[in-house]
Every structure is written in C-alpha cells, then in structure tokens.
Amino acid sequence: MIDFKKEIANKLKEITNMETIEEYIEVPANKEMGDYSLPCFKLAKEMKKAPPVIANDLKEKLEISEEIVTSIEVVNGYLNFYINPLTLANTIFTEMDTKKESYGSSKIAEGKNVVIDYSSPNIAKPFHIGHLRSTVIGSALYKIYSFLGYNVTGINHLGDYGTQFGKLIEGYKRWGNEYDVENNPIDELTKIYIRINNLCKEDEAVLEECRNNFKKLEDGDAYCNELWQKFRDLSLKEFQKVYDLLDVQFDSWNGEAFYSDKMGEVVDLLEKSGKLIESEGAKVIDLTEKEMPPCLIIKSNGSTTYATRDLAAILYRARTYNFDKALYVTSYEQILHFKQVFEVAKLLGLDTKYTDNLIHVPFGMVQLKTGKMSTREGNIIKLEELLEEAMERAANIIEEKNPSLENKEEIAKKVGIGAVIFNDLYNSRIKDEIFDWDTMLNFNGETGPYLQYTYVRTNSVLEKACGVPEVETVDTSLITDSASIALLKALYSFGEVVKQAADKNEPYLISRYLIEIAHLFSTFYTENKIISEDTQLQNARVYVTYCVNTVLKTGASLLGIKMPEKM
Fold first, then answer.
1. Distance of CA 192 to the CA centre of its chain
2. What is the pTM of this model?
3. Is 128 a catalytic residue?
C-alpha cells in the first residue's frame, strides 16, 4: 500500500537533509488545507528563515510525481500537499482486494509480546456494571494489539484471595445448608457474607475464627481449600455467562491466590535492596523521594497486601511471557496504587525492558443517568441482568421497525450487546460513562445501532448489485465527486487510526472513526446513484461501498461488536 506521508517525507528529506522531517508532517483538521501539511514554524530556528519563506523555498525545490501529489500550496507558513485521488483509489482497492477483512492490519509488532490485565471481578461477589468498563476496554485492546501483530496474553486477575474468604468459609460452615449455593451461587454467597460480617461486628471471637480460617487456607488446610475452590468454581461459572454474552476471552485466569506462594521471593528481593524498612510494625518501601506515600508490603499482623501480590505478578509475567508491554486496565481510583507498585518493581532486579513498560490504563466510572451507583442505595446493576435487558429492549425496537425480520432474537442480541459496548467505548476512557438506554439504543445517533444500520445498508447495496465486482474491472477514474473522494481518504487512514488506538490505549479513536465513516457513507449514498444502467460507474461505486462494508465490520470487531447482516 502506498504510504503517501512517507513518499512526501522522503522527498523533503532529500532537500532538507533532516532525518526526522516525517515527524513534522501532519494531517490538517481543515480538509481544505490539504491532505498533509508541513508547518514550517518548526523549521524556522534551524533554517534561520521566516516560515513563509521556508515554505516557498521548499515548494520550488520539491519534485514529487503527480501520481502521488497533484498540487502543493503555501498558506501562511504551511506547506500543504494534495494527494492524487486516482492513485488513492487504486491503492485502497488493491489493498482491499489483497487483505479483505485484514485491511488495516499490520505486522509492525511481529514477535513482540503484550500482556493485558483486565476485568478481574471478585469471587463470590456480584459481577456488576462497574466491572463492565475494565472488561470491554481490555477486550478491545486485546483485539487491537492482536490486529497489529502482537502476541497478546489476556489475563483475568481474579480477586480470589484475602481475609474475606476466611469469613465466607466460617459463614458457610455455620449456615451453608440454609442457602442454595449450587443454583444461585453469587446471591446466596453474598447473603452468607453479609450475615457473617454482621456477626463479626458483634463478636470478636467469631472475627478471630475467620482470621484463623484464612490462615489455614494460606497454610493449605484441605477443608478450607476445598471450600475456597468450590466458591471459585461456582463464581467462574456465573461470570462465564457474562463473558459469553460479551464474547470476551482470556488466556489466563490466574488470580491473586495464584501468587500466594510467590510473594516470599518479592519480600526477599526487597530486603536485599535495602529499601524495605519497618514502620509501626509493618514493612514498607519509602517513596518520599518520588512524592508518594510509602508502599505497604507486609502488614503489622504479617499478612501481605495487594501491592505484594501485584509485584509477584510482575515477576511472574516478565519471566513467563517476556513482555514488551504489560497493561493494567483498572479504574482511575487505582492510579496511586500502580504508580507505587511500578516504582517498587524497579527494586526487583528485573531488566528495565520490563519495568519501563508497565502501563496503567485508567478509566472513569460508570454513572447512571440519575447519578452515582451505590450498594447502600440498592442501585447497583448486575451485568448479566443489564445485558439481558439490552437485548430485550433491542428486540422490542426491531419488532416495531421490522416485524417480519428473520432471526430477530440473534439480531437483537448483536444490537443490544453492541449498543452497550459502543456506549462504553465512544468517549476517551478516562471520562466517566453515563449509562442512558435512550441514547445508546438510538438508531439515528452516534451509537452502536447506527453503525450496524449503516453496515446493513451497505449489505443491501451489495446484494442489489449481485455482489462485489472483480477489482480489475473497476475504473477508478470514474470516482471524481467530492463525497466519494472524502470517503476514500477516510478509508485510507483506517490502519493509522488502529495504530494510534494502540499507542494511546484508547479504543474510542476507532469508535469515533467508524462514526465518521458512517456519516461519510451516508453523504456518498445520498449524492450518488450507486445502482445504475452505467455498469462501469456502478462497479466503481459498488467497490467503494464494499470497502466501507469491510472497514465497518472489521473496525466494529476490534471493539468487540458483531454486525448483523440484516436489520
């Protein structure tokens, strides 16, 4: 595929002798200012000339084939380039014919490894809407990095360790036969936990018994371990229902408990570093120099912390996966925690290849239209119930719009789940997400259903045209109108958008891009008669439609959204 930016950069390099000139070339926000632009202000200091003078000098000396650039203009110190639309169309069509649904993919990261830690619900607790963001963002990043050629390992770092299990074991010992844990595990275990928790507040002896249970669990007691395994297995079975609906997969389910026998090495390494100090009976790493509070490694009662387990996980993941990047997808409430952990990880003796590439990917909270969610207020929404409702609402809308549609249930599933995912990924992840049914299921807004509807419209066009013409039969010189060219320019940038989404760990860049493609296709569709008596003109426009169809489906799949073929 012709890289227009690189072609321009290479010609500029020849006359400026600047190896880094490509870094200065940008895509103007205003399309009238060209397809690529070189702001000459950045060169003024080095060339000791005014930007407009530099721009004019470069224009006079530049020799670029008209097959690449049709015109170059100087505007207020900017050197603006307009690429050849015929070459653009030929480049896109040839690449699309070769790569098809892999159009936009890359092998730039071949041989590189990335591990992504996402979702991570707590065992024996409800899997609620608050877990949605980590699950959906992490899954999208998994797909995006894979598309770019990375070897990706998705890790579900389950919350399956800690003193709460001592309480749960005690509660189950006392009242397990009163609750239907087998058929309704999460709700019933939650009831047991609340009950034992209340008893602990009333009776210190019960709390001590719970602590003893956890100590026994740590020491490998058979009965406690059997119960813990039962709680874990039942919880995972429930969680899997949600993962199946969202079509989310993991390569590793190693939770906190997996690292219970690996924390001793962490403590030893920190001791050897000379940085682990005693503080009020606990052991901490002083981070005053880094303007952070101390990182607690061992509590005063001798037990470990989240930080200890995360450090053990870093050691294990470096050795097991040899990662080039390790991403942690959690809420912004954990920013300080990961800053501390990543700083302390530098004391573990690992190569800087690992410690310099630990990346926290924080995100904002999910809020209901009425405000914040709260367990106390009873407005926590279970994720499975939410997804079921999304499908039900989508089914009602489809029934109203197209009652004779076949496979309505399967289509409603794609529309409902797609709406939830798209709503989550439409804004920068750091923003709080507002959960509003009316907005997310709107077929006319900037939503998942709108994207799916546009895709279905492209399917309809391809069906009427009796399929996609052979690329060799397409006359690209017939694609001359502004709507078609604007659409082609956007389609050309798909691969670059995917790279940017990975560089910034921001799936929303793809979401926004897909909405732009949908809008541009709508204009193209309105302004051009696609199915016509002129076979050559029809073939050219049908091929543009096919490119849109492919990019919409591929882009949506990177977000975790499935496209219905009809709606």
1. 35
2. 0.94
3. yes
